[in-house]
Design a protein that fits this description.
2 domains, 5 helices, alpha+beta, Aminopeptidase, 8-stranded antiparallel β-barrel, 7-stranded mixed sheet
């Protein structure tokens, strides 16, 4: 898996990915006139302009571009994953990367949510700002929701030694769930933890606390199916309003089909 900034050579692939995804998914939620509006809104010219402004990123799995995401200042737009690759956590991964980038400068992120994506954004902590509508051809109306999410800047001065975390959310395909508990330890910039509960019989992780406060580690566990699984994870800490720590994680299996996903764990 490789997530990079798009260049002009990727224009046609991003355009086709966007158009094909809209034509495949949106007719279940909108009339034809609205689908046509979305397709014209995400034109080659619009995508090229965003690429020139260095606002577009693409996600490769092996040698295939499976998804794309864009932003304009603190506004996320044009997040699409090829239908055949949906359900593997790629959309969540792209969203997290965009939020991370925006969070370097801004305290909140905004987006316009189509009807087919509202539940996804709510699960990521977005709340409704307003309901909007736009008239399109033949009297049809496009209805969408403006949503926002408060972003906490990376917290670097955290000592994880003795802290316990439980899982709040996880992408399908992951093994940990709400019954999994992590017991963390730290010595200098070295981090390790043991975890168990739920689908996990016993697990361990070890890694580093980076200078920017993020965590990079590898994990290994045996689950209740007697499978031994290994993977890697990049974790971004945020401080909640109650002072506790929340870790927003992007993980990837290093065995099997090497699926990716995202999870959130919070200090108990």
């Amino acid at each position: 898996m490789n997530y990079i900034q798009a260049s002009s050579e990727h224009l046609e692939t991003i355009y086709r990915l966007t158009q094909d995804t809209i034509r495949s998914i949106y007719p279940s939620y909108y009339p034809k006139e609205v689908v046509d509006f979305f397709c014209s809104h995400h034109s080659r010219e619009a995508i090229q302009s965003d690429i020139e402004n260095k606002n577009v990123w693409i996600l490769f799995v092996n040698d295939t571009i499976v998804g794309t995401g864009s932003r304009d200042e603190n506004h996320i737009n044009r997040v699409f994953v090829i239908p055949d690759f949906q359900g593997n956590g790629y959309g969540s991964f792209i969203m997290q990367q965009l939020e991370n980038k925006i969070g370097e400068v801004y305290d909140e992120v905004l987006l316009d949510a189509s009807l087919c994506a509202i539940q996804l954004y709510e699960k990521r902590g977005y709340s409704t700002v307003s309901y909007e509508k736009t008239a399109v051809e033949n009297g049809s109306i496009l209805v969408y929701i403006v949503m926002k999410k408060e972003l906490s800047h990376i917290t670097s001065a955290i000592n994880y030694d003795g802290k316990c975390f439980s899982t709040k959310s996880n992408t399908s395909g992951g093994d940990v769930n709400s019954k999994t508990v992590f017991n963390y330890h730290q010595l200098g910039d070295i981090l390790w933890a043991d975890y168990q509960g739920g689908n996990i019989s016993k697990g361990f992780l070890v890694g580093n606390v980076e200078k920017d406060g993020t965590l990079d580690f590898h994990y290994q566990h045996i689950n209740t199916k007697k499978q031994i699984r290994i993977g890697k994870c990049h974790s971004m800490p945020q401080t909640l309003s109650n002072g506790k720590i929340s870790l927003h994680e992007e993980w990837q299996w290093l065995d099997g089909n090497c699926d990716v996903g995202s999870s959130v764990i919070e200090e108990m």
